[in-house]
Amino acid sequence: MRLYYVNDDVPEVTTEQLKGACSKRGIEFIEVYAPAFLFDPASQLVPGDLLYRAAISMASMRVEQFLFADGVSTFYAHPDGVFFGYTNAPLLFQRAGLPVPRRFALVSPNRELIRRHVKAVGGLPVIVKLPGSGGIGTMKVETFPALFSLLDLLSSQKQQPAVCAFIDQAVHWRLIVVADRVVACYRNIPEDDDFRTYASSDKADFVDPPAAMAELAIRAVKVLGLEFGGVDILEHPSGRNYVLESNFPCFFGQPQIVAGIDVAGAMLDYLIAKSHRLSATAGETAEGGRQHGSTRR
């Protein structure tokens, strides 16, 4: 059995942890570097192979789609999931009944409309959010003059951000989900002089998640048609939880480095088990076809 690992500027620790998990289980680890990939039909995978794209670049997505074939084990819940994505996951979460911070896309520079959106999310301060990772593109804005000048800049660059409610005094959690369970959970803490948060290096921050929060994280991953993800949740002092996002792929190295939690092993075990299920289903389908054909002589 082989794991095909699509890389494109992925943190080295991610690669090493998955490579180590493969070595322990006797799985061949094949690294595919997306920028140098030759789109040769002969390189497409075969049933029984495992496939994980650890990179987020468009090149890596194209390579993953090219490599995929029926019977290949991935973290996509649906056979064709590798070919689809979502441009507005928070709205999808909301439609599925998951609690999310109030949020609107800013698609017009009309200042009266912007004022109405700000009022609708609860007033100033607000979060202005652009696509990004590691907190890049997440900005807290406390006055209308600052908001209008920022949005003028973003509009000149053809950017269309979202305006979101600022959840004051909330605790930021990251939960890493594999299938139907949370395999790692930790609190993030704010940087000095910053409202954004980062993964703590303190072991005490790795905890068992509250049951309701774990259920929410698992649902968030499933709503996106996935079986693995890093879910960000804000916990308000009142106890109310808000789903911020569910990231796929996601950085999972921190739990093993800090707390010895083998996320890579859990990921690989799931892909292996899914591969066996896919093979069994294919065998049953083939057997059923032979039996059906034998009755039509």
Identify the CATH class of the largest domain: Alpha Beta
Q: What structural class do you assign from the helix and strand content?
A: alpha+beta
Shape: globular
Could you say what the CATH architecture of the largest domain is?
3-Layer(aba) Sandwich
Q: Give the CA-CA distance, first to last residue.
A: 38 Å
What Rg do the Cα atoms give?
Answer: 22 Å
Sheet with most strands:
5 strands, antiparallel
What does this structure look like?
With 297 residues, the protein is an alpha+beta fold. The chain folds into three domains: 2-75 and 263-277, Rossmann fold (3-Layer(aba) Sandwich); 102-165, ATP-grasp fold, A domain (Dna Ligase, domain 1, 2-Layer Sandwich), CATH 3.30.1490.20; 171-247, D-amino Acid Aminotransferase, Chain A, domain 1. Helix content is 36%, strand content 23%. The chain is built from eight helices and twelve strands. It has helices at residues 12-25, 58-67, 89-95, 111-120, 144-156, 211-223, 253-259, 263-294, and strands at residues 2-7, 28-33, 50-53, 103-105, 126-129, 138-141, 162-165, 171-178, 181-190, 197-199, 228-235, 241-247. A five-stranded antiparallel beta sheet has the order 10-9-8-11-12. The longest helix is centred in the C-terminal third of the chain and has 32 residues, at 263-294. The radius of gyration is 22 Å and the shape is globular. 32% of the residues are buried.
